[in-house]
Every structure is written in C-alpha cells, then in structure tokens.
Amino acid sequence: MTLMSCHGEREGCTDLDAINYDLLADVEDNSCSFPTVMLGFKAIMNDSSRIFIGNTHPFGSGTMTLRIEDLFLSGSQLEITTEKEQLLIDNIQMGLDSTQEIENVKVANIQAVKFNVDEITIEGVIDTTGGYDFIPVTLTCNDLSIDISPIEQKIIDRLGYELDIWLRIEQLLNDTDLFTSTTPCDDLPSAFDVD
After folding, report:
1. Distance CA 173, CA 47 (A)
2. % of the chain surpassing 90 pLDDT
3. From CA 187, how far away is CA 176, in angstroms rounded?
C-alpha cells in the first residue's frame, strides 16, 4: 500500500534574511522584502533637552543663550556593522531632524556605527551676557572620525530599523571657539551618540 500526500508545494519567501521569511515555504516566489535603516540626525543639550530650529537654549553656566537657525551634518564612509553584514555608505548629508534611508538590509542586530564627519555647520545667534543681546554666529567644525561601538541591541519590526545619530551641542560649544569660522574638532567624539 502506498500513501500519497495531497499537499502541494508551498510558495513563499525562503530567504532567512528577509522580514517576510516563510518557514513553511518550499519554493521561492520572489516575494522577499528586506528592512530599511532609517538614519536620523538629532541634537540635544547636555541636560538632554531636544534642540529644535528657532528655539532658544541656555548653556554653559546659564549666562549664555543660543538660538540655532540651521544645523547641518556632512559625512562620509558611513559603516553600519550588523551580525550578518557591513553596510557602506559613501556620503551622508543631513539637516537637523532629517532622515536618510538605507535599503535592503539583512535582518540582524546592529552592533556598531562608524563615520567621518566632514563638516558640522551651526548657524544662529548667541547671547553671552544674559541680556538677550544676540550676536550672529556661524561655526563650522570638520575633520572628525566617529566610531561608536557597541550599540545596544536593536529590535527590528516589519518596516526596519530606526537609528539616530545624536549630537550634544553643548559639548561642541564648550570644546570650540564660537567665533572661529573653522575648527578641527579633534576632541569631539564624546559629543556623538547613536541609538
């Protein structure tokens, strides 16, 4: 006596690295989709208060106030290391609270992020007297290598990862001359976090 199965082949995504991997699929149907890393750029003061364009923020001893009109990050050689791969992006150009998409990533936890800051530009006004006597200021910081590792485990959902680069503005201001147009910023890696 011969037993015959009436179960036909099941089509679906058979790629373990896809977000819609089908454990029961026998035949690949080219339906696999892969997550996206949404890379964001945000800024905070040392007290962890968020910075928004146009808002005023006290800093230092509390006698100085900064209002940021524009904040821009230009970077290169962005490396995102996961358990399965190393993603390489040649250039990143980001304004405050903007995002950049990195597509077709394998499902895995993010372990480290490394990038070169080619330029950080802050434009705004600053009051150094406490009397709201604002003076225009433009600060450009360049030539900085950032290596952040390890990164806390990232949980992936059906859409992908959210990965934010945080810049602590007060650290930047404390380590540079506010009225110097260009600063090497060699001591600034501590001004960056990624989460």
Report:
1. 14
2. 15
3. 9
Report residue 151 CA to chain centroid gap.
Answer: 12
Residue-wise over 109-135: b if at least 16 C-beta within 10 A, else e?
ebbebbbbbbbbebebbbbbeeeeebe
Pairing of strands 64-82, 192-194: unpaired
Which H or E run contains 172? helix 169-174
The encoded tokens of residue 90 equal 């040649």
39 vs 26, 100, 143, CA distance in Å?
A: 35, 5, 21
Q: What is the CA radius of gyration of the chain?
A: 23
Phi, psi of 66 (to 5 degrees): -125, 135
Return the pLDDT at 97.
Answer: 92
Average pLDDT value over all residues in the chain? 79
List, in sequence order, every beta strand (DSSP E) within 149-183: 160-168, 182-183
Query: How confident is the model over 120-153, as pLDDT tens digits?
Result: 888 887 777 666 677 777 777 777 777 777 676 6
Count the alpha carbons within 13 Å of 119 in the hemisphere toward its beta carbon.
Answer: 15
